[in-house]
UniProtKB/TrEMBL annotation:
Lineage top rank: taxon: Eukaryota
UniProt keyword annotation of Disulfide bond present: no
Record-given protein name: Uncharacterized protein
Organism lineage string: Eukaryota, Viridiplantae, Streptophyta, Embryophyta, Tracheophyta
Cellular compartments per GO CC: vacuole
The keyword Mitochondrion is assigned to this record: no
Length: 456
């Protein structure tokens, strides 16, 4: 309210003071002086304690005694989806933050669990142990799946563990590995949610916002927030269907809900929001198939040799087989011209894979790996199915596998565009913002200096 609007109210109140003689000059003079003093004091109070932006910033700064990072994953958010429909909230972050110009580069294989765990550990899959969404330990024979929470599978030090090691609080609203009790992290019930895909997205956002209603010492300095979309729709219909547009719009509304809640609490400009995806998506149809049974004239590939079919072919023959001989015969068949679509698959000994993939330094990785071309699938035999949809997991050099990186907050320049980078760099970015020493990782120590504003 403008102070001028308060003046008539003060005058009206003085006119109603009937105990004074309106004809007495001795009565009028003190009254006028009192009115002037009251008006001046009201103006001073209103300007400096209500309107003053400095005071508002100071209040917010006192509330957030430590830097806070919210890391958001929109699963399967292929780079370019942000332009498929009106996404005002995502573009608000882009306009006022820093964005990877041509997207974020996932690790290989471009699958959900390996990439989510690389983001929070800064490690390539052979070093953090989650080499696929499903795999088998070659020594124990134990099988890993997306519900496996035993610490033996999860190597490295994820960000929530790093944070609590430094005496701060962390919170996770779903993230692969967050339910694992490991080191000083015990997935505390209030700050760690067990995965339940049926929880509405808005409930997830509201829980994250509720952390900012806590006393300042209880507010987590690192928070994860996970959405399954648009990955779920992408698998069903591929990356170009109108249902993808709807899923992207839904995610954008959730970003808006988060921004609104942070603004209502007066902390939006002080909190760092980092929005990423884990991988992209490419359309697939069953005319783009390669059948391993078609290789039988050169070398039979029994089903019990195959640990993963598509898009990552992983084979572990029994002991006694010459692995190089198996690879040689498979490639001879694929290049013979007598195997349908054979030219779209190449098989490697894992140690001979392109070094850029960083996919050999683990016994969990089967010894023979096949790389299939973008959009193609591998099956054991022809099932006569005719299905179209979407898939990921392919070579991370394919542009369709790229996802997004948007950083908004005090240390991200407004409207800045940076070159694409690998997601293993994110761990060091976040530890730099929070100002803690991170664990050893595959990211570059100096990388945060190239993307973050210097701190004062």
């Amino acid at each position: 309210m403008d102070p001028a609007t308060k003046k008539p109210l003060i005058s009206q109140q003085s006119d109603n003071n009937s105990f004074q003689n309106p004809n007495s000059s001795s009565a009028r003079s003190p009254s006028i002086a009192l009115i002037a003093f009251s008006a001046s004091f009201a103006f001073f109070f209103f300007f400096f304690f209500v309107l003053s932006p400095v005071n508002q910033i100071d209040t917010s700064a006192r509330r957030l005694v430590n830097p806070v990072v919210i890391l958001i994953s929109s699963d399967g958010f292929r780079f370019g989806y942000q332009y498929k429909t009106h996404t005002p909230n995502i573009h608000r972050l882009i306009k006022n933050g820093t964005v990877a110009e041509l997207g974020l580069i996932p690790v290989f294989p471009t699958l959900t669990f390996p990439n989510h765990y690389s983001i929070v550990t800064g490690l390539y899959p052979p070093y953090h142990g989650i080499i696929n969404n499903y795999f088998t330990d070659p020594v124990s024979g134990d099988k890993f799946n997306m519900g496996s929470h035993e610490p033996k599978w999860w190597l490295g030090e994820p960000l929530w563990e790093t944070v609590v090691n430094h005496g701060f609080k962390a919170a996770t609203y779903f993230w692969p590995g967050s339910e694992v009790t490991k080191g000083n992290w015990d997935c505390p019930s209030y700050y760690c949610q067990s995965y339940n895909g049926s929880v509405p997205f808005q409930d997830r956002v509201d829980t994250v916002l509720s952390y900012f209603d806590l006393p300042s010492s209880e507010i987590p300095v690192f928070i994860t927030l996970y959405f399954e979309e648009p990955d779920h729709q992408g698998h069903q219909v591929g990356p170009d269907d109108p249902q993808i547009t709807q899923a992207v719009a839904h995610v954008d509304r959730m970003i808006g809900r988060l921004i609104d809640g942070l603004e209502q609490r007066g902390v939006f400009e002080d909190v760092t929001v980092i929005m990423v995806g884990d991988h992209g998506m490419v359309g697939t149809c069953d005319e783009k198939l390669i059948f391993l049974n078609d290789l039988a004239p050169w070398i039979p590939i029994p089903s019990d040799w195959v640990y993963s079919y598509t898009p990552l072919l992983a084979i572990r023959p029994p002991s006694g087989y010459d692995l190089a001989d198996v690879v040689g015969k498979m490639n001879d068949a694929l290049q013979s011209g007598k195997v349908d679509n054979g030219e779209y698959l190449k098989v490697y000994l894992k140690e001979e894979l392109p070094e850029r993939l960083h996919y050999s330094a683990s016994d969990r990785i089967p010894p023979i790996i096949g790389l299939v071309a973008e959009g193609y699938k591998i099956e054991l035999k022809n099932s006569k199915r005719q299905e179209c949809g979407g898939a990921h997991g392919y070579d991370n050099a394919y542009f369709s596998m790229r996802t997004i990186f948007i950083g908004h907050g005090p240390q991200f320049a407004r409207g800045r565009v940076v070159p694409s980078f690998e997601n293993v760099q994110i761990y060091n970015i976040i530890t730099s913002i929070i100002k803690i020493q991170g664990a050893s990782n595959n990211g570059t120590d100096s990388f945060p200096n190239s993307i973050l504003l210097p701190t004062l």
